[in-house]
Amino acid sequence: MTSVEAIATVPFVDGIVYGEGPRWHDDRLWFTDGLAGRVYSVGETGDLGVELELARASGLGWLPDGTLVVSTLFAAELHHADRHGNLTASYDVSHLAWSTNDLLVAPDGRAYVDLYIADGRSLTGGIGLVSPDGTVRVVATGLSMPNGLGFLPDESTLVVSETHGSRLLAFAAGADGTLGAATVFADLGPQRHPDGLCIDAMGGVWVGCYDTGEFLRVLAGGEITHRIEIDRGWAVAPALGGPDGRTLYLIVDDTTHEGLLAGSSTGRVLQARVDVPGVGSP
What cofactors are annotated for this protein (predicted)? Predict the structure, then answer.
C-alpha cells in the first residue's frame, strides 16, 4: 500500500464567520462569507478586503469580461457584480431548486452551479449550466447533494463532490456545456463526506472532507496521496494559488449543522505548501 504523506499548515486569515468558495484570481485569494454577507479577497501579506456585500454568498467565478458571478446558499440565486463591487444583475432560479451552492466558471465562460432540492429530511439535486444572461439549464440530475466543482487539466472533464454519496464523480463535458453520464472518480468510503475541491496540474483532486476534519489529495481510482488533518472544525474547501500555484489555501469553519442554520460559526483560512501547482480550476 502506498503511504499517505502528511502536510503541515500555518494560519493565514482569522475572524471570518463561515468561509466558502475559495478562488485564486488576480493575484489574490477570493472567498465568500455568506453568514457575514461578504465576498472577501486577500493578498499574500494578509491584507483582507471586502469586495462585495451580499447576503448568503457561496460560490464564485468570473466571466471572460471580468464580471464576478456569485451563487448563494439557502436561496436559489445568482448575482453579477462589476469590478467595483456593484451588483449589476440578479437572477432567481428558485423554479429549479431550493438552494444553489458551489459555482464554477471555466475560462471560456461555461459555468456550472449546484442545484439543491429539499426532499423531506435530505438534499438531492443536480447541476445547472449557467449562461452569461443568468438563465440555467439542468445538465445533471439525481445526485446525492452535489458540492465542490472543478475541471481536470484538459477542461473536458468536470469533477463533482457528491457529499452524501461519499464520492467524487466525473462527467465528460462537451464544448456546449452538456454533461455526459456520471462515472466514479473516487469512492472515499462511507465515513467521508466531500465538500469543496480544487485540482492540480497532474489531475490530483484536493478535497475537503468536512466532518472528518481532513483535506485529501485523491487520484482517479481513489488513491489518496496526501492528507492534511485539522485540529478543529469542518474542512470545507481548498484552493491552489500563490505566485507559483503551489500554495494550498484551506477554508476551515468551526460550526455544526444546527449552528450553520442558526448563523453560528467561526471561520479561518490556513495555508500549506505543496509540490504540484494548480491549474486554475477552481
Answer: Zn(2+)
